[in-house]
């Protein structure tokens, strides 16, 4: 079995690592030289609109998938002529546009914060009048990890925000006072079977995910399963998806979906019977899905802009570091650490030990 | 961190796969084209006495290790001039010679079956008279998976056995009526710390390992830990080792040691907190050892000479196939499947399911 992956970053790297034991060889297409998936996959160097390299990727793969949602439509359309492409380009198109995404949530009865399309300064003023402040103005496409966003706290912020990111299609979203950020990582197979990992609690700082913790038996797990399930079925989705939500009181408000393996599911490598990476591959190859049952208790730390001393990390029992083989730069995700323990109380002890090793920020 | 590995088969492949998350890049030296570790490591094609390629391996590695014990001494001696080599070539030399190995066991007070050196036909006759029959005649070096061995059941077998493998240094060993074949996989760090996986029960057919099952809480675990510990300390060993033993009544008789990661420890990838591969790498790099505690209950099936249908295997809950990317040939190890469950009784259920998928033999 041969998979082609658009993008050669850490998600592709972890997909390729999950593939080898299953007998799945990976080829990645990525314009960067020496991308981190290249250590475990064949790397074709080229842009996502490079017809020659797309042809090579197509020839090297039975199934094509991707590690990021900003793939140009021309690439997936071209690949879909020759290969099975999962998740379907339609899911990609929806996930690429925050407005379409929110409208889909609405249509499926999945609650969201209030939002409005903003295509002009006048529309922005009208949207603020309607939704109120605080609110966040976002580009409809191409935003990730907090980029392409401006927070509006008072009316004086409207003009600077417009100057900062205006001129492209935007969306204004109400900022809701929320208790938790959570995500549901789920997978759907070619036969429509769906499996759901436990609900995950996430902590972001400056728009970048810092910590994730699966919460087994969370009272909102069922609600999140219901929402993610509706989305998977409507999209006829095949593969792993993540639905990010805010908790407001006892409600979940959908924020965005990621039509791919997701950072908040990295703990599944050690913490679930089959990881999100393995399940994504099982799904796109039409194989039976693996169990999403937890194996002990888990916590994930992202390593952003720094790599701690390996010996100190490995001295903590149950620590499973994952270094991505990337050069360290400020704000760059260069690895993650999953901490696992048989019980929640033992996990708490180990968390304390690990927090002494990791730099505070 | 960069590791060089002599040999590029499935053990090197699984070492390399364990290395990537830890930030350890692997380079393997192996004369075969397209060896299976090549998919996840840099592969230098060359013999183990090829000075140029040994030089390249040395330059590409901080630490050198190996996946098989038949490495020529010239290679390890040359590499040890420039690199840290673990386990030490001395352990390799002992493990390479069945007679020295048995004498070492004896010296350490580790029981063995009766044995005698055989260097001539007359010595063979004398050894048979002393030890009795049945017995097994083995080459002192280069034997593995049942090769270079002849079983002597009656005196008429002596001459044919001599004709078959005589002319090189041999050892005659008593065949003991044993209840179980077991192994102890253990690891020792540069600081002398030792960790032990649970005792494993093994089933061989025609000299090839077919099945392994860790037995948590086995009454002979402590004895096995004691024996393996003596061996590790005497050899000043660094890395993962396996000690294979027979159980005769309530005694363990050491059969042989493997100074490397071992087939009977493959279940540790999913079934222990840190796998034998990860712990070997942690050890040889002088990093803290990982926990050898079990994670649920496990069973391992070797795939020898056949690959079952992937979909049928993956339909069994808790199944973790590991395909080595090798062409299927009769008698060749081409993969293994670890079956994991939270409890022994659930494991039994899954074992029944898996046995229906795997061909009987």
UniProtKB/TrEMBL annotation, chains A, B:
Q: In which pathway does it act?
A: Purine metabolism; IMP biosynthesis via de novo pathway; 5-amino-1-(5-phospho-D-ribosyl)imidazole-4-carboxylate from 5-amino-1-(5-phospho-D-ribosyl)imidazole (N5-CAIR route): step 1/2
Q: InterPro entries, per this entry?
A: ATP-grasp, ATP-grasp_carboxylate-amine, ATP_grasp_subdomain_1, PreATP-grasp_dom_sf, PurK, PurK_C, PurT/PurK_preATP-grasp, Rudment_hybrid_motif
Q: Which residues form the ATP-grasp domain?
A: 102-285
Swiss-Prot/TrEMBL keywords: ATP-binding, Ligase, Nucleotide-binding, Purine biosynthesis
Stored PANTHER family: PHOSPHORIBOSYLAMINOIMIDAZOLE CARBOXYLASE (PTHR11609:SF5), PURINE BIOSYNTHESIS PROTEIN 6/7, PUR6/7 (PTHR11609)
- Its biological function? Catalyzes the ATP-dependent conversion of 5-aminoimidazole ribonucleotide (AIR) and HCO(3)- to N5-carboxyaminoimidazole ribonucleotide (N5-CAIR). Catalyzes the ATP-dependent conversion of 5-aminoimidazole ribonucleotide (AIR) and HCO(3)(-) to N5-carboxyaminoimidazole ribonucleotide (N5-CAIR).
What name does the UniProt record give this protein? Answer: N5-carboxyaminoimidazole ribonucleotide synthase
Q: Which organism is it from?
A: Thiohalorhabdus methylotrophus
Primary gene name: purK
